[in-house]
Please model this.
Amino acid sequence: MNTAAVIIYIATASLFGIVIYNILKSIEYATCIIRHQIPFVPSSRILRRAVVTVINKYYPGMKSACDIGAGYGGMARTIARRCDMDVTAVENMPITYFILKITNLFARPRLNVVRMDAFKYIKSGERFDIGIAYLGPGTNDRLADLLDNFSVLITLDAPISTLCPTRVINPGRGFTRYGGKKFPHRLFIYERAAAKTGYLAAAALPQDFQSGNLQRTAI
Model:
């Protein structure tokens, strides 16, 4: 087999693999819509860097973390590597989980990878020092009842509308789209002890908080 034939073979096989992957991801995406779940959104490098900085600055003594809806595991691996923490990555979508499982074979340190609905997993009694959730508006609200399972809970880009965050971090740039709307990159941090002092309805929050036009908090 000559060089040209090998190149054509590799290119054809790669193209076929890409087509199959896109078909499977489209099915997975459709499943999310049918189940009223937020489709997987990869975390940006900006958000990963911000989360790592916050953990190392404000919570250096904490040892365990849970990435709630871990996707391909980029955020979880970054935390495990740069924060010296034991990290559990929970993902329920089959294709995404499969890729997460494969990439975890080459990760150092390795993650504890779990395939399960993240909310059911946490409700089963699992407890962690820190929880990280990149689930989107509305879905994040379901985490309010699970705050007892974490010392600190960090939601990305969308707040828990029934809780007042301990602090809000603005990484400085970037945004995520949910339902066609832009949500500027923000870290909403909820400390269990502080949050238990009272719940706030969304209407009681400052206007800037509701609109997403938050003042920058230095990391």
The helical segments are 3-34, 45-58, 74-82, 94-104, 118-123, 192-195, 207-211. The two ends are 57 Å apart (CA to CA). The beta strands are 64-68, 86-91, 112-115, 128-133, 150-156, 167-169, 175-178, 181-184, 187-191. The longest helix spans residues 3-34.
